Amino acid sequence: MVVKIYGSPIAICTKRVLVVAEELKVPYELIYVDLMKGEHKSPEYLAHHPFGQIPYIEDGGFELFESRAICRYLALKYGGVGKLIPAQSDIEASAKFEQAVNVEINDFEPSALVIGIESVYKPLQGLQTDKAAIEAKRVVLEGKLDGYEALLSKTKFLAGDEISLADLFHLPWGSLLKVPGIDFLESSRWPNVARHVILITRVVWWKEISTRPNWEKVDVPVKI
C-alpha cells in the first residue's frame, strides 16, 4: 500500500516527512498542494486538515497531520523502532529521545524558522526581508549552539550514538541557514556540532545528517 503525502516539495514540514519516508523505504506518493493558489485553505482540503497546513497523509483509511507526528507514525509502522526511534521498553533511551526532540522544537526551530522565512520564503513571495529579525534570531541561535556543543561532546547524535528522528528533524530549517550566510552548523567554533576534524570514534554530526542520500534526494532547492 502506498502512503499518500499531501504537501509541497519545497515546504519545510513536507520535506521533514519525505526524508523519514525515504529513510524507512516507505512506498509513498507525493500529492502536490499549491500553496500559492491557496489550495491548503480550500473547503476540500480543510476537511482533511482543519488548520489548513501541510502536509497530511493518508495511509489506507487512516489520516494524520502534523509533520513530527507523521514521522513518528511512519517509524512505528514501517520498521523504524530501534532504528529512528527507541523501543518504548527502553525507558532511558526513550527519555533521551524525547529530550532531543524537545531540544529541536524549543531550542533550534524558533530561531531557524524565522531566519528561513525572512531569508527564503518572504523573498519567494515578493515580500521584504526583515534583516533585524534575522540578526536577532542569529544571536539567539548562536547561544543555543553552545548547548548543542555540550550535548554532542558526549554522544555522536543528539539522542545517543545512533541517528534518530530528532537529528533528521533539523534538516529542513538547518539547510536554509546558509542562505543568509549563517554557517553555525559548520563553524569550527562548535567542533562537536560541525566536527571538521573527524576522529576515529566520532562522526561529523551536521555533515553526517545533511549529506545523507535520502536527504539530498528530497531537498529540492528553493529558487528565490
Automatic annotation (TrEMBL):
Matching CDD domains: GST_N_Phi (cd03053)
Gene Ontology CC terms, in alphabetical order: cytoplasm
Catalysed conversion reaction: RX + glutathione = an S-substituted glutathione + a halide anion + H(+)
InterPro entries hit by this protein: Glutathione-S-Trfase_C-like, Glutathione-S-Trfase_C_sf, Glutathione_S-Trfase, Glutathione_S-Trfase_N, GST_C, Thioredoxin-like_sf
Family annotation (Gene3D superfamilies): 1.20.1050.10, Glutaredoxin
The keyword Transferase appears for this protein: yes
Spans through the membrane: none
Top-level division of the source organism's lineage: Eukaryota
Signal peptide: none
EC number of the protein: 2.5.1.18
GO molecular function annotations of the record: glutathione binding; glutathione transferase activity
Keywords, sorted A to Z: Transferase
SUPFAM superfamilies per record: GST C-terminal domain-like, Thioredoxin-like
Any single biological process term in GO: glutathione metabolic process
Similarity field: Belongs to the GST superfamily.
Protein name as it appears in the record: glutathione transferase
Native source organism of the sequence: Dichomitus squalens
